Amino acid sequence: MAETNRQWQTRQDGLDKVTKTSSAIPKPGDGEVLVRIKAVSLNYRDTEVVMGLYNHHKTVDGESSNDLVPCSDMCGEIAAIGPNVTAWKNGDRVLSTFIPSHQTGQIKEHHMASGMGLPLEGVLQDYRVFPATGIVKAPDYLSDEEASCLPIAAVTAWMAINGMRPLGQSGGKGETVLVQGTGGVSISGLQIAKASGATTIVTSSSDEKLKRAKELGADHVINYRTNPDWEQAVMEITKGNGADIIFEVGGAKTLRKSFDCVTFGGLINSIGYVTGKTDDPEGDLTNINVLALRKTVTLKGIINGPRDRFEEMCDFYAQHRINPLVDRVFGFDEAAKAFKFLYSGSHFGKVVVRVAP
Ligand SMILES: NC(=O)c1ccc[n+]([C@@H]2O[C@H](COP(=O)([O-])OP(=O)(O)OC[C@H]3O[C@@H](n4cnc5c(N)ncnc54)[C@H](OP(=O)(O)O)[C@@H]3O)[C@@H](O)[C@H]2O)c1
């Protein structure tokens, strides 16, 4: 085992200000395991945390002056086991869960206090102690880099498609799934939806990315830059019916359009806010109650998913041999560059930092 624990830290004061440091390797306590971290995937949230902008959950609004190890998603190997742990052994390959205390069912406010990479220390380091119940087995067929992409992006996508169905009854066949953009959550959504037998529609600002989405199996693609009325294009593609399930990633500038291209009885998953967290003055959401009732739409807020749904999803991934789309892998020393690359939005799918050499 190495002598020290290399780690990146942020004071939540800017992408330029992340620093590399080191600490002693922690020891697992009762019911805990020590994990040697191999690969970390980045999420949009991590860039927000680093910039001090992750402020829409009151229980995780971190102290900006405190040093924090950022990031939540990792694949690693168990390096030591604390007392009273029977579920794991040294060498097991495992994945973090975003909110380790959220084991099943509806997430509650108290769960948020266990969020990785804010408010709790994250995974952009060599070693971290985890509760034995806060990790899941990594699918054997995936590389460390691929497997590290599952905790936030894939689980959120899984919940967007299946969260309203009971555990063990995943679906999607015969449904039309619309994903906005080609980032981590949306490309995971495309892969899961395709494997489920759904018809898929992908929007993007880039024709090049849409070409890649087609290669991944997207049935229909729309460039939302050159076609700002993309919701009408969705209605044409679906012959006037609209999409059954929408990944609402944009927020302020896209939500109204999602209401306009969802089907009767459809589901809009409120996932992200990449176009802003405050209402767009031209967005016309004043009658959101009418927007919901006129087509009996469900607008469902999503915060990732519980551990049992993560395990259900891993079985589905293994059954369908889905490989998460890793766009680029950075070295541990290049983590600062990796955050900036993700924030630039030039990626397709996921961005990963390799931690172990
Ligand atoms: N609620 C949850 O549990 C949860 C979980 C994960 C993520 N999120 C949120 O979901 C969002 C996406 O996260 P991520 O990690 O997938 O981000 P990401 O990998 O950085 O991807 C963001 C993507 O958004 C797309 N985009 C930007 N403007 C858009 C617009 N006007 N219309 C449609 N798409 C647009 C871009 O796609 P193109 O480059 O193709 O245009 C970009 O690649 C973030 O707001 C994040 O905080 C929430």
Automatic annotation (TrEMBL):
<dbReference type="InterPro" id="IPR036291">
    <property type="entry name" value="NAD(P)-bd_dom_sf"/>
</dbReference>
<feature type="region of interest" description="Disordered">
    <location>
        <begin position="1"/>
        <end position="26"/>
    </location>
</feature>
<protein>
    <submittedName>
        <fullName>Zinc-binding dehydrogenase</fullName>
    </submittedName>
</protein>
<dbReference type="Pfam" id="PF00107">
    <property type="entry name" value="ADH_zinc_N"/>
</dbReference>
<dbReference type="InterPro" id="IPR013149">
    <property type="entry name" value="ADH-like_C"/>
</dbReference>
<dbReference type="InterPro" id="IPR052711">
    <property type="entry name" value="Zinc_ADH-like"/>
</dbReference>
<dbReference type="GO" id="GO:0016491">
    <property type="term" value="F:oxidoreductase activity"/>
</dbReference>
<feature type="compositionally biased region" description="Polar residues">
    <location>
        <begin position="1"/>
        <end position="12"/>
    </location>
</feature>
<dbReference type="InterPro" id="IPR013154">
    <property type="entry name" value="ADH-like_N"/>
</dbReference>
<feature type="domain" description="Enoyl reductase (ER)">
    <location>
        <begin position="14"/>
        <end position="353"/>
    </location>
</feature>
<dbReference type="InterPro" id="IPR011032">
    <property type="entry name" value="GroES-like_sf"/>
</dbReference>
<dbReference type="InterPro" id="IPR020843">
    <property type="entry name" value="ER"/>
</dbReference>
<dbReference type="Pfam" id="PF08240">
    <property type="entry name" value="ADH_N"/>
</dbReference>
